[in-house]
């Protein structure tokens, strides 16, 4: 998740055919716990406090839309997550209302016809109207992705985190989904301890004896993608061995209350108007992304702040770029072009 510090100060499957059984289930009483609003309301709220928009696109005749309302949106944890991290919108794809969206006016040109899809229904489903569809819009109201099909609790969970915490910007969904499921599957062996994590104090002592770059893992306990990286990326044996060989690795919770001496200066968490440590603010140039990997050179000077979830496959090229000091002779674009040619997936 990425936080603009100044904004923070203001607020801190495929489709199944409709059938009689689904209709009978859907007609039972249910307690949908999501705090739905209109798209117009959500877009207005975005102007005050930027958050992504979660849209449940339905029609009155869609039986599985009703089943999803009953079985998925009535789940307390799912509803709470949607309410907290998104502006939730329920959109009737066959509405006859005239609607404004991103400066344009949309109508239902086939109003009164059989299953007449509104113009905006086409936009929000990426021109593939089917129901139910869940669409995710970014903080500026632009469509990120439209996902057709009924989703139960288990299926929707990784998608909610994937879009809310911006993992979609840095990893394919199937990779993230596998790692997400492994993180919360107790039967999967835990690889804690593979990376040799040290403190800021120890790293500064070690670097005097044997100069190496420093990798800082920026994480919080409330970031799900942080947990996924801890449980999968950093427990990948090859990744852990590479980090141990080329870096001094530091775990850093940016909400820590500890005083930290870094390059001769003492940093604290003032805890007055935001929850973040002064050192985290300095290392990220006031743009705190969680999770993130921050890279320092052997003099403890900042090289780069790389925000976002990274799987083992996504992080290895970044580790090579900084760990083997490729940055000293190549731009990132030169390096990654060469690297991908040498390591085709």
Structure, described:
This protein has 345 residues and is an alpha+beta fold. The protein folds into 2 domains: 9-164, 3-Layer(aba) Sandwich (Glutaredoxin); 197-342, Glutaredoxin (3-Layer(aba) Sandwich). The chain has helices spanning 5-10, 20-26, 39-48, 63-71, 76-85, 119-124, 153-164, 173-183, 200-209, 224-231, 237-246, 278-283, 312-323, 332-342, and strands at residues 2-4, 52-58, 86-92, 99-101, 104-106, 133-137, 143-148, 197-198, 214-218, 248-252, 260-262, 265-267, 287-289, 292-296, 302-307. A 5-stranded mixed sheet has the order 8-10-9-14-15. A 4-stranded mixed sheet has the order 3-2-6-7. Helix 2 (20-26) packs across helix 4 (63-71), helix 8 packs across helix 10 and helix 11 runs parallel beside helix 13 (312-323).
Summary keywords:
single chain, 345 residues, alpha+beta, Glutaredoxin, five-stranded mixed beta sheet, four-stranded mixed beta sheet, 15 strands, elongated
